[in-house]
Amino acid sequence: MSTLDEGRAALARGRPVIVVMPPDPAQAGVLWSLLGLPHGDGTQATIVVCTDASSAAEWIGVVPGIRAYAVDSVSRALQRLRNRPVDLVSGSADDLLALTAQSALKWDAVGTIVLAWPEQLVAAGRSEALEALLGDARTARRVVLSWNPSSLKEFLARHAYRAEVLGPAPASDAEPLPAVGPAAFAVTATANRPAAARAAVDALDLDHPMIWDGGPIEQPDAPPDGVLCLRLPTRDEFAALSLLGKPVLFPTAGQLGYARSIAAPLTPLRVSPAPDQSKDRAAALRVQIAARIDAGTSDAGLLLLGPLFDRYDPAEVAAALLGLLETPARQQVPEHEAHATPAWCRLFVKIGTKDGARAKDLVGALTREVGLATTEIGRIDLHDSFAVVDVAADAGARALRGLNRVTIRGRRVEAREDRAEETKRPRRGALPTKR
């Protein structure tokens, strides 16, 4: 294992460096030390290549006092990066490639490119854009963050040849290290971990839980009856936490593969109310699903569905997918139904972007607080001080009653039927009149 000074010397000589660490930006302190950040002269930027826009956004809250920007929209990023220089840009390989193609990112101004856990892309078969990006970034210093270098043998041979390795596991032909011990888990967005931990206390009926949010691990005065991890632990930290009790992990969808590498058996924990279960489910389908999970062949699907887990309970996502599988083929749908136009009504909601509201906040309020299905929610137009929301006509009255009882971003919502002259948008339908 190399030291931090040896890693800095390798970068100075143009050699790549591999940092072995959990796939959690909050644990990236060694990266900032390796790169000598913070700096702010704007002449040599750092590019962090992530799996998707959600992963890119997680870096903004942990960078050490430099100008950072997460790419969530190429069009917005084009305007932002051309007008104001930044010290660090995080984004998916596809988005970053699009920005370089339009000269918003120029490689002669990039000092370092950081590949944030590329095994997630390689395992999902989505490394084409990453390969193209690295082909263009030949002059930039290269740092690979990896929690399982042994799974990246071919990739590292091409893009991090003879790299210096910082961390507990060598990037060699050695087999991956075995799991340390058992744990429970709940797939959770990073920002929702505290709330998920509180729900886990109730679900497990804990009286004296230990909440670990990084830092030294010390024996508490009284033995805990549960260990809840608000940070994704390293292998050594997980071993130390396991001595105090069975840990509960809260990984994102993209971090679940790492959780499996350090914990076995890894038992799912339900920390939110379960949806109504159908009384009859095909046993064969359950067996097939369980077999795929046990075999660890669902990483590509987790990467695809990860952004949905930030908005919905994983059980709801699974139920929606099952509904899609059970939908009859298009040719089996009667012609008049296949081309039927759904009946919608339009609601005026007095909350907008100046209140910090986003479209997904309205979707969440309608699905979780009001009880609408996602198929009953149509177009959402969000303005500075109001929003216009289309909902299914037969759900309009219910949506109005529910929205007038909810709070979004700390603001009590006011909703009524839309009047076209207020929003300059043609009405598509009206609420049914009570008789």
Secondary-structure content class: alpha/beta
How does CATH name the architecture of the largest domain? 3-Layer(aba) Sandwich
CATH class of the largest domain: Alpha Beta
CATH topology of the largest domain: Rossmann fold
Task: Specify the number of helices.
Answer: 18
Tell me the strand order in the biggest sheet.
3-4-2-5-6-1-7
**Which outline best applies?**
globular
The helix content is 25-40%
Q: Strand fraction band? A: 15-25%
**Quick one: CATH superfamily of the largest domain?**
P-loop containing nucleotide triphosphate hydrolases
Brief summary:
By secondary structure, this protein is an alpha/beta fold. The protein folds into 3 domains: about 5-165, P-loop containing nucleotide triphosphate hydrolases (Rossmann fold, 3-Layer(aba) Sandwich); about 180-325, no CATH class; about 340-425, Alpha-Beta Plaits (2-Layer Sandwich), CATH 3.30.70. It has 18 helices and 18 strands.
Kindly describe this structure.
The chain is an alpha/beta fold. The protein has 3 domains: 163 residues, P-loop containing nucleotide triphosphate hydrolases (Rossmann fold, 3-Layer(aba) Sandwich), CATH 3.40.50.300; 143 residues, no CATH class; 83 residues, RRM (RNA recognition motif) domain (Alpha-Beta Plaits), CATH 3.30.70. 36% of the residues lie in helices and 19% in strands. The strands form 4 sheets. A 7-stranded parallel beta sheet has the order 3-4-2-5-6-1-7. Strands 9-10-11-8-12 form a 5-stranded parallel beta sheet, sandwiched between helices. β10, α10 and β11 form a beta-alpha-beta unit. The longest helix has 13 residues. The radius of gyration is 24 Å and the shape is globular. The termini are far apart.
